[in-house]
Amino acid sequence: MISIDVIIANKNNGLFLTKCIESILSQTLLPKEIIVVDDASTDDSISLLGPYVRSGKITLIQNQTSLGVAKSRNLGVMHGTGDYITTLDADDFYYDINKLSAEAQVIMHGGNNTIAFSDVMRVDMQSKKMWLFSDKRHLHEGDLSFHISHLKGFIPRDYIVSRKIFMEVGGYNSNLRIYEDWDLKIKLSKLCYWRFSGVIGTAYRNNPKGLSRSPKKEHILTMRSIFKENLNQNNSFIRAILLTRFFFYHSIYLGQPAI
Questions:
Q1: Are 91 and 204 spatial neighbours (Cβ–Cβ below 8 Å)?
Q2: Domains of the chain: which residue ranges?
Q3: What is the spatial distance between Cα 163 and Cα 146, in angstroms, rounded to a whole number?
Q4: Rg over CA atoms, the chain
Q5: Which CATH number fits domain 4-253: 3.90.550.10, 3.40.190.10, 1.10.10.10, 3.30.230.10?
Q6: Distance (Å, whole) CA 93 – CA 201
Q7: What is the pLDDT confidence band of residue 258, given thresholds at 50, 70 and 90?
Q8: Whole-model pTM?
Q9: 230-251: b or e for each residue (b if 16 or more CB lie within 10 Å)?
Q10: pLDDT in tens, 158-167
């Protein structure tokens, strides 16, 4: 079986941390290591993490000053030694106890350039299920370079990817405050094929304090900037056509639930 590190970037999510970590420890396939990078939290996160650290169930990295989610995740990845990595937001949790094992099976059958992903259940602040993302957006497999870069259909999250390929594309862009995950997925899609595990993997919390609640203008400008930077096209005319096409898909995306 493949070895997997789970990376959790946390900042003031003490209210949800225990459920997050326990959902990983309840997996039928346990990860090689659970690495929590605390980004200078000011709530009770550290005291809640203490028992897990002392028991050896998690590895804790404490940022003395806030570095942001991208740098924090990169730190966690660099600290781990598993051949594969996945991330989980501190306010989310694994919905299915077979999430990691199902995705590991996909990886084992698909090879190193395979990324394994699962469905996502949207839940509220009390962890009650709201709706399934595959019911809102069509789920695709294979070469998702167009789908991901144009925000078309189901966009995978909390997937398992080879550490080697993660490092090859440069990891998360630490200059991005939001959408660092989308930027990474665009880069990964140029090298990998995406395969569905068949299970509901993550419960994605409808958290009003999350970064997804940033001003709409910041969302729009950041996403357009990311798309432009990932265009492998020097011809100005073709670039203009591609950007126009993206703006069309982007406007549709902004009217639908984000993931």
A1: no
A2: 4-253
A3: 23
A4: 18
A5: 3.90.550.10
A6: 9
A7: very low
A8: 0.92
A9: eeeeeeeeeeeebbeebeebbe
A10: 999 999 999 9
